[in-house]
What does this fold into?
Amino acid sequence: MVENKIVVGISQGDLNGIGLEIILKTLSEPGLAEICVPVLFSSQKTVSYFRKMLNLEEFNFNPLRDFNQVHTKKPNVFICYEEEVTIEMGKPTTLSGKYAKLSLEAATQALLDKKIDVLVTAPINKHSMQEAGFNYPGHTEYLGYRARSCQKYFTAYHH
It folds into this structure.
């Protein structure tokens, strides 16, 4: 753990859904950095777009590509992709599914690598993710598969 605070990984969910709005508003809460170290799995461009759209100009975050760069006093955004994305609020698309998939995969890997302590998943559109090549019915099945395929990571929790 970083400074004895829990490191909370957060997958971004569907770009065109409500997930990032809820996440950024939550991460904007004063005092949050006193109790945990949040790490959102997204992109700098996506978060900047939502920050502007939601009029959260005071919201500052630390972009990172390496967990050695984690900032303990403000939210972190682990860069999962670089490209500019088209956001169409309320309209699930194959592209929004692709970026939800990238975020979930990166966040899950960070959990398995013990870079984060817990994982919070934002809402996805299962159909959009499956169109983007996600071969699971949803988060639960994917996380179960990853946990079973990586039993060595979880042996400490099976007492």
